[in-house]
From TrEMBL:
Gene source species: Saccharopolyspora halophila
Pfam families: DUF1003
InterPro entries on file: DUF1003 (IPR010406)
Protein's recorded name: DUF1003 domain-containing protein
Transmembrane recorded as keyword: yes
Transmembrane annotation, as ranges: 44-64, 70-92
PANTHER family referenced in this protein's UniProt entry, alphabetically: INTEGRAL MEMBRANE PROTEIN-RELATED, MEMBRANE PROTEIN
Keywords: Membrane, Transmembrane, Transmembrane helix
């Protein structure tokens, strides 16, 4: 008997035929930040004010277009819906900014620690160099010691005495 195709076999589970919706949290976060930034601009306030004035004017004065009479319940519903979406979007954008600030602060602390360590190292090196320079014999010190030895040893002339002796001859 011929083997049945895989998708018709009863002893194997079927592959799920679900529609998979991919969700990118980073893209959603970026979109929410853009919306939150736009909600805080004068441009948004201008257009929202213009929209509300138009809505109220049409509902008060255009008798044939009254879709939302005087208490403007539909307009209030629109405001409530907008506020219910705006608040979480603004909070999400604020949380993302806090995360970025936290990462930036950690990087600044690490950089400050590295700078402090470098400064401490350079200070130690500078102190070591100062001590080493203090122990180095200078030219004046060597001349003084050589002059003292010449005075103590008989028969050794200094270079100045030799030059004076040559000029006399």
């Amino acid at each position: 008997m011929p083997e049945l195709l895989t998708h018709r076999r009863l002893d194997q589970p079927r592959a799920p035929h679900r529609i998979k919706v991919s969700f990118d949290p980073e893209l959603f976060g970026q979109l929410s930040e853009r919306i939150a930034r736009f909600l805080g601009t004068g441009k948004f306030l201008f257009w929202m004010t213009l929209f509300v004035i138009t809505w109220i004017s049409l509902n008060l004065f255009a008798y044939g277009l009254r879709w939302d009479p005087y208490p403007f319940i539909l307009l209030n519903l629109c405001f409530s819906t907008q506020a219910s979406y705006a608040a979480p979007l603004i909070l999400l954008a604020q949380n993302r900014q806090d995360d970025r600030d936290r990462v930036s602060l950690e990087e600044d602390r690490a950089r400050a620690d590295q700078t402090k360590a470098d400064t401490d190292y350079l200070a130690r090196e500078l102190a070591a160099l100062r001590l080493a320079v203090g122990e180095v014999a200078t030219r004046d010190y060597l001349r003084g010691e050589l002059d003292r030895l010449r005075e103590e040893l008989p028969g050794i002339e200094s270079p100045q005495e030799k030059r004076r002796g040559r000029t006399r001859e």
